[in-house]
Amino acid sequence: MPRTAVFFHAHPDDEALLTAGTMAMLAAEGHRVVLVVATAGERGLAEMEKGEALGEARMRELYKSAAALGCARVVCLDYGDSGLSPSGGVAEERPDNAFIDADSEEAAKALAAVLDEERADLLTIYDPAGGYGHPDHVQVHRVGRRAAQIAGTPIVLEATVNRDPLIRALRLAGRFYRFPPEFDLRTFESAYTAGDQITHRVNVRKYAWQKRASMSAHVSQASGGDGDRTLAVLLKIPGPLYRLVFGTEWYVRRDLPPGTRLRHPFDEAP
């Protein structure tokens, strides 16, 4: 029986990195996939001037990504991109409607309205640390969890990364590719989630080309500054290695017991 899954992300391109394979898989299986972003990402990395023009460009890229993944609907909650400080924390200069400054209850009600309208069976958010700690990602966790409570959405999955094989894979990739200056492997040693906490390991190798197409859609985030950004470098990884690195997507479902190992977002513990 077809179900509805809502994927909640902070900015355009976040879906490409963390959940694109799962989204493509569910769409191919006949489920309704809805992509919601909190912001248009108007303060992201790009050669064009930050602001409205960048936000419009990134939303166009988001729709292109969503089409590649088979999404039925795209929604932007229209909060401002909070940005990052040079140290990776909350930026001092940010818009008045920055997502990080939003009232969590009001933002949760806005997302819950989408969940209600869609009669969502599943919502994905981020882990409590927001993966690598971006303030907007942490807010996605808080807002998303509360929205699921308001709407009564039965399944909440925290999209994350199993940092154990990720570190090994990135070290291997580093032998062949020169990562950009802002990429620091050490940050992954405390980011995301340890393998023993993960409940869902979803094999998405069959949908690697859709995931790669989703990444490729976000051209504004592939360059800027002194050269290629992380997204551009990842897209240069050859197909077999790409499927190895990005062939699994990981989630944590907090209402399941530790040690649960499931293979599909809608699977229940035995």
UniProtKB/TrEMBL annotation:
It holds the Pfam family PIG-L. It comes from the Bacteria. One of its GO terms (molecular function) is hydrolase activity. Keywords: Hydrolase, Zinc. It is an enzyme of class 3 (hydrolase). Its EC number is 3.5.1.-. This is PIG-L deacetylase family protein. It comes from Nonomuraea roseola.
